[in-house]
Amino acid sequence: MQRWNARIGSVWLWALFAALLLVVPQVFTSGLSVTMLSQMGIAIIACLSYNMLLGQGGMLSFGHAVYTGLGAFVSIHALNMYSGAGMPLPVSLVPLAGGLAGMAFAVLFGYVTTRKSGTTFAMITLGLAELVFAMSLMVPEFFGGEGGISGNRMSGPAVMGITFGPAKQVYYLIAAYTMVCVVLMYAFTQTPLGRLLNAVRDNPERVEFIGYNPQRVRYTAFIIAGFFAGISGGLGALNFEIVNAEVVGAARSGAYLLFTFLGGATFFFGPIIGAVLMVLAFVLLSEYTQAWLLYLGLVFMVMVMYAPGGIASLIMLNLQVARHGKLRPLLPAYGVLAAASLVLLVAVAALVEMVYHRQLNSAMGSVVNFMGLPLDTTSAQSWLGLCAVLALGVWIFSLAQGRFGARWDAAQEAIEKETHSAGAAP
Amino acid sequence: MSASIHSKASSVSMALELRDLRKSFGKTEIIRGASLAVRQGERVAIIGPNGAGKSTLFNLISGRMAPTSGDIILNGQQIKGKKPFEINRMGLSRSFQITNIFPKLSVFENLRCSVLWSLGYGYTFLKFLVDLDDANARAQELMEMIGLHKKRDVVALNLTYAEQRALEVGITIAGGANVILLDEPTAGMSKSETTRFIALIKQVTEGKTLLTVEHDMGVVFGLADRIAVLVYGEVIAFDTPDAVRASARVQEAYLGSSVADAQVGESAQGH
To answer: Are residues A14 and A163 in the same domain?
Structure first.
């Protein structure tokens, strides 16, 4: 058991993850939630494969959607080809075709991109992503032009009554792929190449002097990441039954980067959190407000400035504090901080909604309904009032932040002392 | 080792040979026809004034830079123009003047990464690290050799400076190379740390060929079997410590007072 823990991490945690994947659609049964859960599974694979580059290899790619997207296109073509010719490729294996395609394109493009690291790598991936997107409009035979290419996932013969018609059946297919891919990607981090990839991230030059070619380490990891990205794309193709040029677009690549970072690139599970948030933002937040992209940008900026390790690192830091029994004294400070954040958030959101309403929806009257509160965008009162609330929020927040910071530092110091004395003991 | 000192060994038994090595940056020639033949198992210190080209020489030998002309022969094989990792695989490993480790990996992971190639694991991702018994044992052994076994899981970034220097040496010797290049291994260390560290270096490079760049003359005379004096990109003397100390040419070109200081220092320590 201990060896297995060192190989693939806690077996119990994996069992929990599997149980979660099985049970969640039984709890959230609505059509929307099943669709969202499917998308989450797809996004989890995509973000984890992206983090193989970003978090584990230090490769800031601006073009990961190239591999998920091309995987999706090849998958939908495979689906159509086989359903047309009546050949026996089970629908459940179509995502593997996407994986192989993602891998093949990673072999091709990665040969160029991974020769460089750092800024140069980032720039080349950006250029390549633009190139592929431009191609998608120039070669309608493959990319389907503006309308994209559609397919029918029910085209295969039903196996044991599974037709992949109902969304739930597709969800379970995606869940199975998610489970296997996540375990495999975690296992990769515990292999020689996985560890060397970390070494290349930390210090590529030194790697050369311990007998390894850092370019080849990056290249191999890039190919593996391309494989999983392609699987994610293939699952997306089955899920939506339509693939258009958007899937290879820069916005998609940007979303992978943003949410992987938000979830936390320094821990393996960080991108899983990021992927869940991605679907919530794209599906739910975009329903609630037109300004959702602006909020996303704000959140991203705040995270980069205050928590560059993402949500995962916040969780891990607090878990460490809790393990040393130092979390309880922090709770009041956390409470004040949360209250101040809430005031800030409400004020900012109200102002943003008013601006958006003025610019986009003024034809529908001057009053915007913000969380049950009617705000008149033409009256100076609401603007001034909200600005006052905002100022108040900033003031309380800066006070709370200072207090919290002091207590947090004290807790960290105490923990450091404890671990040091524990280390010195025989 | 002592048997071969007085015989004129052929180039095959030489661990490392430089022949008329040259390196120019633009119009400036930094290494100007340096030649050197280091025997198997010998400890050689390279000394010279600042800007003599000592670090450049190390960079040429280890493949970090390509020479403009000349030959570099490692264990009888030409290595000129090869990549650093190829040279490393052929049995030459180096350390760096500015600590060059894997900062976010633990001490153990730093060392385990450094032994993987020599144990034949290549770029595999089909085996789990935990199952590589030989690599784990070797990393553990190295950790004990450099005295960091109590810091097994400490992230390298959080080690003290002296510990990082020790780890640097550990990474350098991990792959079992028979020619070891240490670039100012004791730079920035206190006197007592230096003394301990030199003992460590002697111990972990036992039986290997060692080339080191060093500024501390006490260290040089205590460690080296032979000393190469590099001045303006040329090896002007390559001999035993006593002979180098006595050489009028070396005195004139470079050493002067520092040799006298080292002698005073050594006699004061009762050598």
So the answer is: yes
